[in-house]
Write a structure and sequence with these properties.
about 220 residues
Amino acid sequence: MNPSMEPQAFGAGRAGSAFDPIEFLKKPQVILRIVAWVFAIIVFACIAQEGYANNICRYNESNACGYGVAIGVIAFLLTIAFTGLDVYFPNISNIKTRRTIVIAELAISGILTFLWFIGFCYLADQWRQEDQKDLLGWNGRNSVQAAIAFSFFSVIIWGALVFFTFRRYREGVSNLFSSGYEDHSTGGGQTYAGYPAAGNTGSFSQPPFTATQQAESNYQPPTY
């Protein structure tokens, strides 16, 4: 069956569908997560490598370095986790579990969008207040500014992930009623025949107990 014609539930077909790595990598949320993963590495790597001089944060000696590294590591780990869930997602047959995962992804993506925005504002403001931007013996200015720039790019990427995840949730709910997707999580997928129609006795040539009923109808009470 063509994957595009297969009934979908929250962005994936029936449980047990064949996994196509090419189609998987073409999904917008997968591409965005890969980009978000790269941006997270750039942010925390730039700050961890060049964000300190003599153990002092170059962002106006504030806690911006710690915040940038923390949010970068968290985003790095979450992108890996969600990508792994996307790989396993088609094997989940329970519709409620699928919906819970998508809702959790939507909420976490929204929180990370907000945290990246706070991080961008924090880093940019503290760097603006830094008096010695060209400290003698320190060559990390480009790295510090790159962390600020990719923090801003991360806001856009995670905002796009929120959009695509919400669309995935909305289409998933509507497809449950329009695509004929069946949830086999509560049973073995067996179907049972209904009751025979009125007047259809199936394999019986006559209704049961007919002979007994006929004998009772021919019974004549004795006369005295």
